[in-house]
């Protein structure tokens, strides 16, 4: 098996479950030494939330190297201790930081279609303390290790909610800010040969989302039912990991710095599939847009290569 990331040191935040776990599995399989973070160290019975030990074991079973670090990303001193440990144990080497930890999926799902003025006041902090502020702090510590070595890659796991309204207001504001953070961090890091990008996965079949699907969260309202279908046909948790392995192995990664990258576009560019052999839909595909709007028959007549160009997608934003 090829291990393009042998000798690389990575940090993936929020890897007990979900996309962070999938990314950590792929980075480990690609040969990197992967530091993973989360609050839950040991398996908890009947908990869909997973644990650091379970992710670490899966990485080791695939022949990878994993260092689980218990860290609550709402606590600045725990974030500092994480990066101190990485620095001490690797002689200052850090090659890849994946800003992924996110504390808000359940809160967002509980409040789908609830207007913002009726949502809990602390929704803002639930979404953006871990999902935005913490990513800035992690990026500071990572840059301090990457800049002196003149190499590194920071990936912010964001979403198409950074472009236009999705789920709720703190969500969209947080994602747009995270995309902008990637652009501005890249601006300052470019001359030090360190890359920073924002990555938009598609709809991902995480443990939490699939349990919400099963429990009927998306049933009833027609637009929620469409959302449910999009998740049922979504990506595995490892698809975004494949994107990051390819980016981190690309000698021309600096040509992508400062960009918002769509996971499915990277799958086309680097020519990989999801772990089950599928090619999950890309929201730029016209057939995918028709299907997710309920036009299934029409969508089956539209070839997959017909996509909306990115310059046109940017008009779906709202600036100017
Ligand atoms: N699920 C999707 O369909 C989807 C699609 C596109 C983008 N995203 C984005 O991907 C990112 C990850 O989402 P997910 O769906 O995998 O979420 P998830 O809830 O399944 O996993 C989040 C991870 O973060 C960890 N975490 C939460 N709070 C923490 C804290 N205080 N300290 C340490 N770790 C903490 C959790 O333990 C877990 O490991 C988010 O930014 C999300 O918006 C998700």
From TrEMBL:
Keywords: Oxidoreductase. Gene3D superfamilies: NAD(P)-binding Rossmann-like Domain. InterPro entries: NAD(P)-bd_dom_sf, Sc_DH/Rdtase_CS, SDR_fam. The keyword Cytoplasm does not apply. It comes from the Eukaryota. Transmembrane segments: none annotated. SUPFAM superfamilies: NAD(P)-binding Rossmann-fold domains. GO terms for molecular function: oxidoreductase activity. PANTHER family: DEHYDROGENASE/REDUCTASE SDR FAMILY MEMBER 1 (PTHR44147), DEHYDROGENASE_REDUCTASE SDR FAMILY MEMBER 1 (PTHR44147:SF2). This is Dehydrogenase/reductase SDR family member 1. It comes from Owenia fusiformis (Polychaete worm).
């Amino acid at each position: 098996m090829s291990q393009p990331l042998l000798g690389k040191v990575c940090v993936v935040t929020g890897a007990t479950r979900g996309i962070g776990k999938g990314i950590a599995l792929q980075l480990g399989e690609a040969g990197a030494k992967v530091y993973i973070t989360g609050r839950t160290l040991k398996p908890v019975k009947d908990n869909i939330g997973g644990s650091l030990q379970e992710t670490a074991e899966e990485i080791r079973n695939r022949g990878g190297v994993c260092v689980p670090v218990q860290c609550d990303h709402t606590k600045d001193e725990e974030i500092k201790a994480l990066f101190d440990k990485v620095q001490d144990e690797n002689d200052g080497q850090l090659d890849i930081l994946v800003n992924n930890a996110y504390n808000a999926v359940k809160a967002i799902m509980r409040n789908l279609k609830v207007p913002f003025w009726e949502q809990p006041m602390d929704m803002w902090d639930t979404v953006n303390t871990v999902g935005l502020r913490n990513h800035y702090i992690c990026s500071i510590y990572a840059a301090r290790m990457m800049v002196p070595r003149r190499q590194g890659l920071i990936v912010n796991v964001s979403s198409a909610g950074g472009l236009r309204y999705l789920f709720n207001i703190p969500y969209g504001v947080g994602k747009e800010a995270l995309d902008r953070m990637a652009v501005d961090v890249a601006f300052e890091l470019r001359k030090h040969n360190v890359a920073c990008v924002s990555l938009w996965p598609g709809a991902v079949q995480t443990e939490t989302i699939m349990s919400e699907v099963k429990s009927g969260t998306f049933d009833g309202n027609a637009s929620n039912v469409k959302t449910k279908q999009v998740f049922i046909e979504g990506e595995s948790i490892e698809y975004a990991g494949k994107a990051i392995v390819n980016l981190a192995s690309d000698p021309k990664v600096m040509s992508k710095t400062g960009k918002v990258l769509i996971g499915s576009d990277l799958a086309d560019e680097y020519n990989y599939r999801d772990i089950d052999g599928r090619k999950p839909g890309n929201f730029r595909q016209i057939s995918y847009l028709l299907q997710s709007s309920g036009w299934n028959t029409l969508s089956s007549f539209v070839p997959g290569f017909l996509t909306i160009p990115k310059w046109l997608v940017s008009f779906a934003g709202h600036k100017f």
